[in-house]
Amino acid sequence: MAQGVRPGWPGILEVYRDFLPITERTPRLTLHEGNTPLVYADKLSERLECHVYLKFEGANPTGSFKDRGMVVAVAKAKEAGKRVVICASTGNTSASAAAYAARAGLEAVILIPHGYVALGKLAQAVQYGARIVAIRGNFDQALAIVREVADPLGMEVVNSINPYRLMGQQTAAFEICDTLGRAPDALYIPVGNAGNISAYWMGFTRYYDEKRIDARPKMFGFEAEGAAAIVRGEPIEHPETFATAIRIGNPASWDKAVRAAQESGGAIDCVADEAIAEAYRLIAQEGVFAEPASAASVAGLLKRHREGGVARGETVVCVLTGNGLKDPDSAMRLASEEALVVDGNPDAVRRALGGLS
Ligand code: F0G
């Protein structure tokens, strides 16, 4: 790969190289992922009487947190001489895999549940040139197929069962601590395949072990109610939620997620689609457009607050995992206001705005 000049934030392989399995032979792959904003949520903080920050992972190059793990997984696949990466995905993993594969000069094969991937994510995979196979089935079935076919075909699996993915995703926890100068008291995060909550816990634990922080946060993970396998204690054959990114009924990192919640004194819980939709709207009022699945973190915070589980003055971080632009259909479907269509002259506009002043 060309080693040209790279001004600005150099990406996570470079910035966090001491924490990642980088060798001299690892390609210096980057789309300058990471360094995402930690946005102070004024309105939510005031309403909940605590300090709420939004870690906006939608600001990553392909619009989701997946880029942090994908850059490591694809760089290591290339280092190992692989030519093709493969993944199952509810959309974001596939967009990220397709982008980093293109960047690294590898092929990407992606398996998606037909009809259940937000349009923006699909458009990304198409534009990045991935080979896309839409299965008549759900994410869990797609992942099972990937596990079966990858090895014989010599393809590298870049789902979060690939350990490099979680290593890369830890860096979001590092960034939060680096930005705040400490760990938050609690972290709220959506749970789908359960890799990300596990990665954050690894990250906080690593910083704690290296004495960069003196306490670790309580970890609160939230599944969608119709896909809450961990909460129910058994896989769900037909998971359902409008937050399609977390429409997953048999999370691959189930045990790790449970351990993160238990060891930290947190919990895995679930939130209803209506609560996700409400949080989706509240996040937008802070000026941040996140996709529906991301809003499960804020919906979870609101739920715990109602239950008396949030202390006054606490510092909490809600992870907003993906960009709202990926799923414009959800935004339009849930919108309370739509565009007024009027003739193109000032009078018509004045009339249309009559109610305002
Ligand atoms: N939020 C978004 C926007 C996601 O895309 C995902 C997972 C999650 C949360 C849940 O994270 O699986 O680590 O617990 N998306 C995967 C995908 C499954 O294929 O893009 P998790």
UniProtKB/TrEMBL annotation:
<dbReference type="InterPro" id="IPR026260">
    <property type="entry name" value="Thr_Synthase_bac/arc"/>
</dbReference>
<dbReference type="InterPro" id="IPR001926">
    <property type="entry name" value="TrpB-like_PALP"/>
</dbReference>
<dbReference type="Pfam" id="PF00291">
    <property type="entry name" value="PALP"/>
</dbReference>
<dbReference type="InterPro" id="IPR001763">
    <property type="entry name" value="Rhodanese-like_dom"/>
</dbReference>
<feature type="domain" description="Rhodanese">
    <location>
        <begin position="84"/>
        <end position="128"/>
    </location>
</feature>
<protein>
    <recommendedName>
        <fullName>Threonine synthase</fullName>
        <ecNumber>4.2.3.1</ecNumber>
    </recommendedName>
</protein>
<comment type="similarity">
    <text>Belongs to the threonine synthase family.</text>
</comment>
<keyword id="KW-0456">Lyase</keyword>
<keyword id="KW-0791">Threonine biosynthesis</keyword>
<comment type="function">
    <text>Catalyzes the gamma-elimination of phosphate from L-phosphohomoserine and the beta-addition of water to produce L-threonine.</text>
</comment>
<comment type="pathway">
    <text>Amino-acid biosynthesis; L-threonine biosynthesis; L-threonine from L-aspartate: step 5/5.</text>
</comment>
<dbReference type="InterPro" id="IPR050147">
    <property type="entry name" value="Ser/Thr_Dehydratase"/>
</dbReference>
<dbReference type="GO" id="GO:0004795">
    <property type="term" value="F:threonine synthase activity"/>
</dbReference>
<dbReference type="InterPro" id="IPR000634">
    <property type="entry name" value="Ser/Thr_deHydtase_PyrdxlP-BS"/>
</dbReference>
<keyword id="KW-0028">Amino-acid biosynthesis</keyword>
<keyword id="KW-0663">Pyridoxal phosphate</keyword>
<dbReference type="InterPro" id="IPR004450">
    <property type="entry name" value="Thr_synthase-like"/>
</dbReference>
<dbReference type="InterPro" id="IPR036052">
    <property type="entry name" value="TrpB-like_PALP_sf"/>
</dbReference>
